[in-house]
Design a protein that fits this description.
This protein has about 800 residues and is α+β, with helices and mostly antiparallel strands. Helix content is about 50%, strand content about 10%. It has 23 helices and 22 strands. A hairpin with a 5-residue loop joins strand 14 (about 520) and strand 15 (about 525-530). The longest helix has about 35 residues, at about 760-795. It is elongated and about 115 Å long. The relative contact order is 0.07.
Length: about 800
């Protein structure tokens, strides 16, 4: 197998080994075989195109075209021309499948079902990376930069998977990259020869000698470089600062089960979706509904309940699902003497809002929804199965408008049994300040209802600031930080109140969903992305799971939590969306969009801007950003700076032997040709190397003459008995460089200036220095340990 064919095979293999990092993200791995077939075909097309040979850009273009045709045949065969060629209809279909895949990525938790859209993302993404690797490593003969697309593919997988169990896949991807480097090294070694005889002068040509050097030295150096790179990659994440898990960190756990009671598949990334909704620039409509409820401010549309708190995050517990019964069971813990009113709601979901759980009023009694849905009794959630989403779904819900009295809540006995055991658990890592604050806030309360009211008033009293740009986090550290900074948005308020309630032995969980939205002139309610909300639900024996609202001036406080209000039927409300980024809780201001009757009741207030909400800055974070910015600026121009410095040193003249000055000019001439795409062949004679430089560089006139002059000077230096200095070699090299620049394309000129190929010598030199350093350290350690070894041997 030729060196180029070996590079092609190892390039495709490295791409597939990096793609293996995507396996934990999906429920099945069948897509990997399809990706392998597509990558193999793409690599084969590239090998044939290079064999013809086609121009390098044309080779990459042909590979990309064939890959696009293969994707069309796979994902849009019915719209393709003749089932093969991509026409306008096929392109539109691929765009729709791709958009569906992007929606599915946001809707399903890991491991996600392999929907057509997700399959297109996986196979297409692997093809793009494989094309980049093949083009860089094989077509353009530079395997080292091919690690960047491989790293990008692995980083996407590790980022989506939250880094869990990702190190074996990193090792697999790194092994593929090292195999690619080894294949390129063998290919180069097979073409390396001797440079004019003898060893290179200090600081000169960095190539092995076929006669006097060991042919395995570059291989050993490559191994050392690979081992060092792997070590840095594994150690750096532990040393460098990183963003910790937080409240808005994409959770890996889902909200429901798969078909047949299976757990984990097809669930929604709830908290991440909530964060994304609140950060949208526009309050895009997600659904609309009509209802006969008499308590519109209390028409929260609940999606799911998060009841598991492990110290790192709140997530829904994995619980079995069942077919939706004609009549849903009685709400958990609700006694027959609690008043309620049946409410009918007709919901229409927008086509652009696609996720796997139905937003419904709580608690629902009956659900009529087309499609493949299951019911989870514990959380009273309706969950889509086998890719079923809410997009364009029209459904009907009959729910209960529960109206407990303050007396019923106050008289509720303390919860016992499974409810108390499961829903009062807090992790041992929860900081003591959480329980201490809860006890301090509720020290005057005599029952759980009063304690719940005290907790709600603690957050809405005016000391806390509503700010959607506050640092996120659901873990114990985030809760403690929120109590200290008193700045956050609905998620912070809801999760912190639930945690504090649990420390008081009040069963609690957090609900995710939407506030009621806004009412139109025709009575239809419209819900937008910025109506996304989180709130705590506390359990009272005899009443059941009960909503509270600790987020100041967001949503509506239930009537049973208002002072001196014993019955339901109205709420202290604010329908402002979560669009305001910073707002103090104690300074509401009315908006012009409020209805007159609401304005009279101070129902429709939004907080005014906070005075100076800045935190003063974090010096360490600023310093880190400054270092990163410096690296971003300096790293790309390092090859340019190094190359200019080396050229100036080689051609600067100065004192030295005639042999050294002439060979320095020759090395600069060869590296200049390398920068413009003419690879040096160290086995060639100076005359043959110059002839090839003139031919491939299309040099004419003065530039060609200058190249011949440098070659003649080198031959006289190498073979003349008493070589004499040849003046003007630096000017001759500059003339050749000018000629190469004039005949090269614009892209080649930019590459030669900004990323010269000969800058690879910079890395070779660094490797050599590192090798010498490790050898010196090893020698000194051996000398220091010799006396100890002698004592050990004598004893």
């Amino acid at each position: 197998m030729s060196g180029r064919a070996r590079l092609t095979v190892f390039g495709a293999l490295a791409s597939m080994m990096a793609a293996a990092a995507l396996l934990p993200l999906t429920a099945t791995s069948s897509w990997l075989l399809r990706a392998l077939l597509c990558v193999s075909l793409q690599a084969g097309v590239g090998a044939v195109a290079r064999r013809i040979p086609l121009a390098r850009p044309l080779t990459v273009l042909v590979q990309a075209l064939v890959s696009f045709i293969v994707l069309t045949m796979t994902f849009a065969p019915h719209q393709a021309l003749g089932g093969i060629l991509p026409g306008p209809a096929a392109v539109r279909e691929l765009g729709q499948v791709l958009q569906g895949g992007l929606d599915d990525v946001g809707n399903f938790a890991i491991p996600a079902p392999v929907t057509p859209g997700i399959r297109l993302l996986l196979v297409g993404g692997t093809l793009v990376v494989a094309l980049a690797v093949d083009a860089i490593a094989v077509t353009y003969n530079s395997a080292a930069p091919a690690g960047l697309p491989l790293l990008a593919l692995y980083s996407v997988a590790a980022g989506l998977d939250d880094g869990g169990g990702a190190w074996p896949y990193f090792m697999i991807a790194a092994a593929g990259y090292l195999l690619l480097l080894l294949a390129e090294g063998r290919d180069r070694l097979s073409r390396w020869g001797r440079v004019f005889g003898g060893s290179p002068a200090p600081g000169g040509w960095a190539g092995p000698s076929a006669a006097g050097g060991s042919a395995t030295a570059p291989v050993r150096t490559g191994r050392r470089i690979g081992a060092m790179a792997l070590g840095i990659a594994l150690i750096a994440p532990a040393v460098l600062p990183s963003l910790g898990n937080g409240l808005l960190d994409p959770t890996r756990h889902g909200g429901g089960s798969g078909a047949g009671g299976g757990r984990g598949s097809g669930s929604v990334n709830l908290v991440a979706a909530l964060q994304d909704n609140l950060n949208q620039p526009d309050n895009r409509e997600v659904l609309s509904y009509r209802t006969d409820s008499t308590d519109l401010p209390g028409m929260y549309l609940r999606i799911a309940a998060l009841d598991k708190f492990d110290g790192k995050e709140w997530t829904p517990s994995d619980r079995p699902v069942e077919d939706i019964p004609p009549q849903l069971p009685q709400p958990q813990g609700m006694a027959s003497d609690v008043k309620f009113k049946p409410v009918t709601t007709e919901v229409q979901v927008d086509s652009g809002y696609s996720q796997g759980l139905l937003p419904m009023p709580f608690p629902a009694l009956n659900v009529q929804a087309p499609g493949n849905w299951k019911f989870q009794p514990e959380g009273r959630m309706v969950i889509g199965q086998h890719g079923q989403t809410t997009s364009e779904v029209h459904y009907s819900v009959t729910s209960m408008q529960v109206m407990p009295t303050a007396a019923q809540l106050a008289a509720a006995p303390q919860a016992t049994g499974r409810i108390a055991d499961e829903y009062t658990q807090v992790p041992k890592s929860l900081p003591p300040v959480v329980a201490q604050t809860a006890l301090s806030v509720t020290k005057d309360a005599t029952n759980d209802y009063e304690r719940a009211l005290d907790l709600q008033r603690f957050f809405t009293s005016g000391d806390f600031v509503y700010n959607t740009e506050a640092k996120a986090g659901t873990g114990v550290d985030a809760i403690a930080r929120f109590l200290q900074t008193k700045e956050g948005f609905c998620v912070h308020f809801a999760f912190t109140m639930a945690a504090m309630a649990r420390t008081l032995h009040i069963p609690a969980r957090v609900a995710i969903g939407f506030t009621p939205g806004s009412q139109g002139a025709d009575g239809k309610m419209t819900v937008g992305l910025k109506d996304a909300h989180a709130w705590p639900e506390l359990y009272f024996e005899g009443v059941g799971w009960t909503r509270f609202e600790p987020t100041p001036y967001r949503g509506s406080a239930p009537a049973y939590t208002a002072s001196n209000t014993p019955t339901g039927g109205g709420s202290t409300t604010d329908t402002a969306p979560h669009g305001s980024t910073t707002a103090p809780a104690a300074q509401p201001s009315q908006t012009d969009s409020c209805a007159p009757d609401h304005r009279a009741q101070a129902d429709c207030t939004v907080p005014s801007a906070a005075a100076g909400g800045g935190s003063g800055g974090n010096a360490a974070q600023i310093a880190l950003y400054a270092v990163l910015a410096l690296l971003v600026v300096t790293i790309p121009i390092t090859p340019l700076l190094w190359r200019n410095r080396l050229r100036a040193r080689r051609l600067g003249g100065g004192r030295g032997k005639a042999e050294g000055l002439t060979l320095s000019a020759w090395r600069e001439l060869m590296d200049t040709g390398w920068d413009y795409g003419i690879l040096p062949d160290e086995s060639e004679t100076p005359r043959r190397a110059t002839a090839r430089l003139v031919e491939e560089g299309r040099l004419t006139g003065e530039a060609a003459t200058a190249a011949g002059a440098v070659a003649g000077a080198v031959e006289r230096t190498l073979y003349a008995p008493n070589p004499r200095p040849t003046p003007g070699l630096a000017a001759e090299v500059h003339r050749v460089r000018k000629g190469l620049h004039a005949s090269a394309s614009r892209g080649t000129r930019l590459r030669a200036l900004l990323l010269p190929r000969s800058s690879a010598r910079m890395f070779w030199a660094a490797s050599a220095r590192w090798n010498r350093f490790t050898q010196r350290v090893s020698t000194r350690l051996g000398r220091l340990s010799a006396p100890l070894r002698r004592r050990t041997a004598s004893s």
